[in-house]
C-alpha cells in the first residue's frame, strides 16, 4: 500500500537529511570549503530535516489507522504487528496505536481471543489520553465479541466518566452502538 511506502520513505529521508545537515555544519565549523555553501544554501536546507521529521512522526502514528479505515486489514496487520512493543525506534503512543489497530484487525477477522490477548499483555502505557481511550474501547469490543457484555459495560461506564477526545469519539460511538444492540 502506498501509505506504508510513503512512511518508510519519509523516515529514511528524514534520517539522511538530518545526518547530512549535521555533517555539513560540522565540516563548515572546521573551516572546510563548505562555508560558502552553508552561507548560501544552509538557510534553505536547514528546515528540510525538521519538516521531514514532523511528517514522519505524523505518518508513523496514523499509517495503521489509515489502513484500518480503508479496510486494508492484511496490510494493516503487516505494518502494525512488528511495531506493537515500545523500543528505541517506536514510542509509547505509536506502539499503543499499533496495538489498537492489530486488535481491531483481529476482532474484525473474528479472532477476539487474539485481540484480547494482545490488549491485555503487559506493555508500556501511552501518555496520550485519546490513545488510552482507544485501547479501552478495543478491549470492550473484544469482550463483546467474546460474549462478555458485563466487562464491556464496565469499561463503557468508566469511559463515560472521562472527557471524550477527538481521536476516540468515533470508536466510542461504535462501542455505544454495539452496547445498545446487546
What amount of the residues lies in strands?
under 5%
Count of alpha and pi helical runs = 9
Distance between the termini: 36 Å
Morphology? elongated
Roughly how many Å is the radius of gyration?
21 Å
Give the strand tally.
Answer: 0
Give unreliable regions as ranges: none
String of helices and strands: HHHHHHHHH
Q: Share of helix among residues?
A: over 70%
Notable traits:
182 residues, mainly alpha, elongated
Question: Can you describe what's shown?
Answer:
Helices cover 76% and strands 0% of the residues. The protein has helices spanning 2-29, 35-45, 47-69, 73-80, 92-108, 112-120, 129-145, 149-160, 169-181.
Please give the structural blueprint.
Blueprint: H1 2-29, H2 35-45, H3 47-69, H4 73-80, H5 92-108, H6 112-120, H7 129-145, H8 149-160, H9 169-181
In short:
Helices cover 76% and strands 0% of the residues.
